[in-house]
């Protein structure tokens, strides 16, 4: 499900600072809308039940994401990955610390972000074109909006299916629609919470390739939560691993890895293979079986 984070629901390469609040990619020479993200000593605790102590999910999260970067977030289930994304979008607030986008604190739902979840959640009574239109910011001139929607449909290879309704397209096509909808508002930060988790293996690989193409055309900052180590290695510039110390319930940043090589990457690359084993081992997986 891809959401414009300015509405809780509306039916929810190296970057160089140009000094004007936008950022230009060094090799492509394009000006992007990519914005920086900073987590400054972020902690999140939830009230305990029956008068018990609060349940601390995240603590001491300090992290800088540069404009245009693709950052993957890995960690065991319950380690606060989605909670971290929700704090960045303004859908949730830290108990302590601050999240800043482009140097400005996030206070409430932030219209500089678009958020994506596993399920597309398209409006079933609207066709593909109309569903993508939902992502346009309010006040967008009609002609400009139509042009933007048509360009995005071309980008995600859905132009010839724009007249169909969600029930008439595949799961992968529905997810491509929701990606186009998210990009329609030109977000400075795209937050992806396991967006391909519900897809079959082949469609998932195709969607990973599509995301790289979309990022090339619209080089926004991307924070990607995933349980898939191979997905993180293919898509990310860096990988953050969240983990808990013994006898602690709160997760913090255990490791940060810089992924070698330019995208698209060779899935059989030996260096990536070694990093894959390191990541799996850090997540508690027996690497002798994988």
Give a quick summary of the entry:
The chain is α/β, with parallel strands linked by helices.
Q: Give the N-terminus to C-terminus distance in angstroms.
A: 31 Å
H/E element string? EEEEEEEHEEEHHHEHEHEEH
CATH topology: Rossmann fold
Q: How large is the share of residues in beta strands?
A: 25-35%
Structural class: alpha/beta
Give the overall silhouette: globular
The first-level CATH class name: Alpha Beta
CATH superfamily: P-loop containing nucleotide triphosphate hydrolases
Proportion of helical residues? 25-40%
Q: Tell me the CATH architecture.
A: 3-Layer(aba) Sandwich
Mean pLDDT: 85
What is the number of beta strands?
14
Q: Main attributes?
A:
single chain; Rossmann fold; about 25% strand; disordered N terminus; about 290 residues
Please describe what this structure looks like:
This protein has 290 residues and is of the alpha/beta class. It is 27% helix and 26% strand. It has one domain (2-16, 26-289): P-loop containing nucleotide triphosphate hydrolases (Rossmann fold, 3-Layer(aba) Sandwich), CATH 3.40.50.300. It has a seven-stranded mixed sheet, sandwiched between helices. The chain has a four-stranded antiparallel sheet with strand order 6-5-8-9, with helices on one face. The chain is globular. It starts with a strand and ends in an 8-residue tail after the last helix.
């Amino acid at each position: 499900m891809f959401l414009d984070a300015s509405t809780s629901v509306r039916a929810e390469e190296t970057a160089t600072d140009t000094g004007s609040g936008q950022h230009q990619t060094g090799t492509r020479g394009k000006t992007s809308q990519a914005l920086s993200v900073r987590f400054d000593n972020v902690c999140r605790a939830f009230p305990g039940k029956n008068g018990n102590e609060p349940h601390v999910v995240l603590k001491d999260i300090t992290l800088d994401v540069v404009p245009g970067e693709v950052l993957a977030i890995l960690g065991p289930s319950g380690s606060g990955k989605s909670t971290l994304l929700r704090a960045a979008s303004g859908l949730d607030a830290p108990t302590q610390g601050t999240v800043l986008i482009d140097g400005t604190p996030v206070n409430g739902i932030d219209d500089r972000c678009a958020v994506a979840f596993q399920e597309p959640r398209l409006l079933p009574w609207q066709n593909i074109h109309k569903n993508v239109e939902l992502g346009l910011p309010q006040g967008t001139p009609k002609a400009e909006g139509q042009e933007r929607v048509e360009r995005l449909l071309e980008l995600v290879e859905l132009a010839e299916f724009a007249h169909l309704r969600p029930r008439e397209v595949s799961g992968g096509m529905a997810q491509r629609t929701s990606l186009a909808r998210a990009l329609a508002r030109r977000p400075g930060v795209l937050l992806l919470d396991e967006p391909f988790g519900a897809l079959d293996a082949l469609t998932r690989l195709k969607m990973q390739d599509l995301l790289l193409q979309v990022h090339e055309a619209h080089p926004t900052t991307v924070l990607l939560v995933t349980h898939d180590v191979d997905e993180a290695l293919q898509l990310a510039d860096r990988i953050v691993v969240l983990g808990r110390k013994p006898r602690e319930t709160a997760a913090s940043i255990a490791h940060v890895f810089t992924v070698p090589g330019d995208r698209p990457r060779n899935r059989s690359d030996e260096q990536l293979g070694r990093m894959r084993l390191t990541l799996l081992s850090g997540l508690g997986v027996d690497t002798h079986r994988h």
